[in-house]
Amino acid sequence: MTSEQAPVESPLPLSKYSKRVALDSIAGRPDGGAGLIGRRVVVGGWVKSSREFKLPAPPAPPSAGVPKDISCVEVLQTKLPFFRSIIKVFVGEQRIRDKIDSVILPKPPQPSISILQIGDGSCVSSLQVVVDSALAPPAHVMQTGTCILVEGAFQKPSLPERKEKHTIELKADKLLHLGTVDPDRYPLSKKRLPLELLRDSAHFRPRTTTVASVTRIRNGLTQAAFAFFRENGFLHVQAPVTTVTDASGGARENLLLVAAALPDGVKVETIRASIKEKSKKVEELRRSDSNKEALAAAVQDLKKTTELAELVEGEQRRTRTYLSASGRLHLESHASALGNVCSFGPRFRACAPESRKVLAEMWMVEIEVAFSELEDAMQCAVDFLKFVCRWIMQSSAEDLKFMAKRVDKHVVDRLQLIAEGPFEKITYTEAVKVLKQAKNERIVEWGAPLSEEHEAVLAEEVYKKPVVVYNHPKELKPFNARCSDDGETCAAFDVIVPKVGTVIRGSQSEERLNMLSGRIKELGLEKKQYEWYLDLRRHGTVKCSGFSFAFDTFVLYATGLNDVRDATPFPRSIGQPNN
């Protein structure tokens, strides 16, 4: 090894638990990595694209092809017919031919280098790695998706046409790991695939540049949410995923029965009456001279009916369990003791599988604040959105730039709209009036929920900014939203943003025991399932307010994507196959 190739201690930080250099520490340098030339590192990643370049074959030595232990006579014997005919009498032609053929070596393959573009998921940029065919055959390292871990030294790009795209490249001299790919079964290629095709390969699609950027932006939004909580004195509480309480007061479609559902209208009394009739029939058959087959059939029928009655009675005794549509009821119990609390986790809703903005499983950020009212919760929601937008613009600038180029050029502008611009606040009644004046295609009447089209008109056409709509009809909101003095509306609000619609739904909880009990009775809810929640009103009641932030929906807003299935790592849809 020459002095120019001598190892130089790398100034780059090593990944603590994998002893390699992450690519973002290389691509993020102001000089593009030029100052690293000559330094040795270990890098690893997956091949995104590749090219092979043939090198000139080394010149053959003068004596190539003629073994040293073959005499001139032997060579002449093989070349000249005249000498062959004379010498073969004394020596034998076949023996000499076999000797020559056995020692002449096959022609070596032409040497080449593999130019690999590898990514490790730490950043948008890839690193160019040069692998000599003497180190690894091109067929083993060039396939898209191949995993390699190599050691080598940085150098200037070896090919002139690559210098415009890359400041440096890594010349590999040690291959530490090689994970090959079956090209007949691997779904990805170096060509860009539509996002809808990648949904069938959710376990591989993070290796694509677009999905990797989306994942890093999701991570940035998660960090932003927890940073907001930390800076504002919130305690994180793990809310349950399953519960016996229907948090929304109307999400009965989320019911998850412990046993299989029975047909509607089946009552134990009806089945018991049938058992009496069948028992009489069995007794009559036993007293009569009927054949044994008829008696056996009647006994078997009675047995099945009895088993059905036991099953129905068991189902009526069972506790119904819900997949939680909201964790705010449980958060309220902790807010009533700890003040400001938050949670982050999956929530469930029954939805059509073709919905672009809603999945059966959606991740939600939820907060609950004690001693607060509706205005406090609305201000907290606005502050939260501004905070996460500012955070993501700073922490994920490279990924946002890529998404603006690849997916939607208005991504950063929309984030800026929330981060620095004002919010419009209007009541539900005012929103209905504005929509009627806007003469949109779908007419809205007071008392009806605002559709996606209505939300788009408000945020994108009328106000052209985020809109907070509050004081909704009580029938449209959860049972525990505080009823207003007019008896028709409640202290609830939605935050609507351009492109994706509602991203936050919040409310002030009903702190008055009589009013809350009345709503439970009015909606026909099973009161005993809410006794624990009513206890919060019986003992030390406090005004609480909070909201739920649709995390997956906001990822659409931050990335410019149009389908939530492309913004979620493993989307869950009813009636659809899931990984």
Description:
InterPro entries: Aa-tRNA-synt_II, aa-tRNA-synth_II/BPL/LPL, Asn-tRNA-ligase. The protein is of the alpha+beta class. It has 18 helices and 16 strands. The N terminus is likely disordered.
In short:
This is asparagine--tRNA ligase. The chain has 18 helices and 16 strands. The chain is an alpha+beta fold and 579 residues long.
Major sheet characteristics? 8 strands, mixed
Radius of gyration: 37 Å
The residue-averaged pLDDT reads 86
Give the class from helix and strand content and strand pairing.
alpha+beta
Count of DSSP strands: 16
Query: What count of helical segments does DSSP give?
Result: 18
Query: What is the global morphology?
Result: globular
- Considering DSSP H and I runs of 4 or more, what fraction of the residues is helical? 25-40%
Q: What is the first-to-last residue Cα distance?
A: 50 Å
| Uncertain regions spanning at least 5 consecutive residues | 1-10, 249-264
Strand portion = 15-25%
Q: What topology, given as strand order, has the largest sheet?
A: 6-10-11-16-15-14-13-12
Question: How do the strands and helices of this protein lay out in sequence?
Answer:
Blueprint: H1 24-27, E1 40-54, H2 72-79, H3 81-90, H4 93-103, E2 112-119, E3 127-132, H5 138-141, E4 147-155, E5 169-179, H6 195-198, H7 209-231, E6 235-236, E7 242-243, E8 255-256, H8 268-287, H9 292-317, E9 321-323, H10 328-338, E10 340-348, E11 361-370, H11 374-395, H12 397-406, H13 411-420, E12 424-427, H14 428-438, H15 452-462, E13 467-473, E14 489-497, E15 501-508, H16 513-522, H17 531-538, E16 544-550, H18 551-559
Parallel strand pairs: 3-5, 6-10, 12-13
Antiparallel strand pairs: 1-2, 1-4, 2-3, 4-5, 7-9, 8-9, 10-11, 11-16, 13-14, 14-15, 15-16
Helix pairs in contact: 2-3, 7-11, 7-12, 7-18, 8-9, 11-13, 14-15
